[in-house]
Amino acid sequence: MEIKQVRKSLLPGALSDESFMTLFMVIVLVIVFGVACLLVPNFFRPQNVLNLVTNNWFLIVIGIGVTFLLITGNMDMSVGGNIALTGVLSVYFCQAANGSLNPLANGLGLPYPVAVGLALVCAMGIGGINAFFIAKLKVPSIIVTLGTMMLARGAAQVITDGAQRNTSLPDSFGVLGSTNIPGTSIRLAVLVMLILLVAAFVFEKKTVYGRRIYLIGANPEAARLSGINVERYLTALYILSGLLAGIVGIFLASELKSGMSSRATGFEFDALVIALLGGVSIMGGFGSVLQMFMGAIILSVVTTAATGLLLSPDWQFTLKGIVTFLAILAQRYALDRRKG
Fold it and tell me: Residue 53 sits in a domain of what CATH number?
């Protein structure tokens, strides 16, 4: 009896709940990957494993901002619309002015760096609108960000007339999205994703500001009483989330050399799923970008395996939902058993 009590006191105390959940999701990833290797021929090939990360760089980038906001107890459902708007604006700002009778071929004729800068400012502006209503006016984040998602996508539809803009662009427009890391076939966007992920992890774990985010999510009133300017933190995080969505929009528009109002449809839900799948709490106060990253890889394994099994898109969507649901239930069960 005494030995059991000693083991119970040592093992649970050896890891924090966050570390325990991260380790748990690593185990889940190994299991899911093992099942995929058994069902899908050649799934374990190195190139396929590399693709699990590189093919989902955009979800991981926007997942960083979504994760930080979830930790504070808030959401950002506007990222998909923001990606579409930023991409459309970067094209419109670059297109030659009055160079064609087709209105979709005419833009402002700005240099590409200026066009990118202005588009990113607009992306952060969407984040600023979110922050104003959520941090200042205390409107629930789910309502505000769904509204700005529709606002951003609607603006993109107006600029593209419901179609797309892909002509009268300078050669420099496609460079950013088509450049590879020297000596590899990996796109520059993947390197940017890795840099942002590492920076977010360091910010989260090694800075006072990062730790305060958890306090805001656990108890906003206690955070205010302890001297933390909650409104300022939420404003900064929403602007950051808008910037990250803008970066994704710029890279996707450059890679595809077009701006489309329908681009990134559903990305906001996928970003939310990978965060929750990784163990980030929707109630706030718990989670990490590393857990979000694990969730992204698990979702990527499921999606890739479903494609390898030649499942229809409808069944792929259903399978993703089932795996997400089971993983979240397993997380809840594991944490309850640990605390019990």
Answer: 1.10.3470
